[in-house]
Amino acid sequence: MCCWPYVDVILEDPPPKKEEEKKEHHLVSDRLNLVGPVLPAPTYQPQYPLYYAGQPLPEPTKIWYGSTKAEVDAQNAALAPSVGALTPMQLVPGNPGAGQQFYCRELDGSYTLRTMTDIGNSCQPGTWKTAPTGFPYFIRIEK
Question: Model pTM?
Answer without folding.
Answer: 0.44
